[in-house]
Amino acid sequence: MTGAGKTEMIFPLLEHVLQRGGRVLVATPRRDVVLELAPRIAKVFPDNPPVVLYGGSSQRWENARLVLATTHQLLRYHQAFDLVIIDELDAFPYHNDPMLAYAAENCCRPDGRFILLSATPPKQLQRAVASGRMPHAKVPARFHGHPLPVPKRIVMEPVERCLARRRLPLSLLKELKGSVERGAQIFVFVSRIRHIEPLVRLVRSLLGSKVPVQGTSSQDEGRSEKVLSFRSGEIRVLITTTILERGVTVPRSDVYILDADSGLFDEASLVQMAGRAGRSKDDPAGKVLFASREWTASQRGAIRQIRGMNRLASRSGYLCSQGKVGER
Question: Would you call 32 exposed, middle or buried from its count of C-beta atoms within 10 A (0-12, 13-18, 19+)?
């Protein structure tokens, strides 16, 4: 589940191996997620500061017993670790890349342990779990005991047309202003990089100069700094692509997915983007909004999956009474 605290759950495993003199590798497909995890892991393990590896990392020649890396960096190692944890295994570029899958298994020692983490595992892994062929642990609730925010839908013309007309639907604008008024940080996900800058200008003009709006994508060299500014509240609205669909935790955040009917947004992507909301115990409800002209199978499947996890969490007794009442 997104926001269930998967990172914190692996800390006892890391500690167990490190206390016995072993080496640990935590790998994730994306640099942004590595940079998000690094300070959290370093704070918990001050006696074993992690070496952080990604393309262009200044630590690429350093050795340590605790390594945090993008999955491409696994090609550097051969049977070097007692514990290998692959986070976000369903994400690009790890997903559907046999070379990286081989590298991940190859860097684990023959008597070591190999663990996969995912909030949205690929279908073949889901089938392996369902058939009992893969040992697993399922976590259907977030640490704060409240249900996942269930997305609501509004009908909206494609972003391309809205930009051409230089206006947004009143229903969307009303929701955005409501998020601003309640003090939320606002993720706005779009399917195309080319839409970001014109949409930034349009949203700025509609929300006013007092609401800082920025955009970022994989082509933005300053995206790490913008995420930090967004997390601190200096940026209130961040318009982005799926590069921020996972691994980024921002307290009190609302999520808007425009062109949610795009073929680029599959069910897993929609679940991951929706999972940016409600992660904080101080703001567990959040808001998730699917805006699109068409109502697709991916959108229906994402909502069905989120509702299913909430039902399982409720049946298992993981939700506090307030959380059960608040389930939508």
Answer: buried
Are 141 and 1 in contact by the 8 Å Cβ rule? The answer is yes
First to last CA, the chain: 17
Segment 95-108 shows an average pLDDT of 81
- Model's pTM, two decimal places? 0.81
> What's the per-residue H, E or C state across the chain?
CCCCCHHHHCHHHHHHHHHCCCCEEEEECCHHHHHHHHHHHHHHCCCCCCEEECCCCCCCCCCCCEEEEEHHHHHHCCCCEEEEEECCCCCCCCCCCHHHHHHHHHCEEEEEEEEECCCCCCHHHHHHHHCCCCCCCCCCCCCCCCCCCCCEEEECCCHHHHHHHCCCCHHHHHHHHHHHHCCCEEEEECCCHHHHHHHHHHHHHHHCCCCCEEEECCCCCCHHHHHHHHHHCCCCEEEECHHHCCCCCCCCEEEEEECCCCCCCCHHHHHHHHCCCCCECCECCCEEEEEECCCCHHHHHHHHHHHHHHHHHHHCCCCCHHHHHHCC
Which among 64, 68, 63, 10 is positioned nearest to 36, based on CA atoms?
Answer: 68
213-267: pLDDT as tens digits: 999 998 998 988 998 899 899 999 999 999 888 767 888 999 999 999 999 999 9
**What pLDDT digit, counting tens, does each position of 252-276 carry?**
999 999 999 999 999 999 999 999 9
Chain center to CA of 173: 25
Name the strands in the sheet holding 51-53, side by side, starting at the edge strand that comes first in the sequence: 51-53, 66-70, 24-28, 81-86, 108-116
Cβ atoms of residues 235 and 264 within 8 Å: no
Q: Which amino acid is at 210?
A: K
Q: pLDDT tens-digit profile of 160-182? A: 999 999 999 999 999 999 999 99
Number of residues that make up the chain: 328
d(CA 176, CA 211): 11
Cβ-Cβ contacts under 8 Å for 157 (sequence gap 6 or more):
169, 293
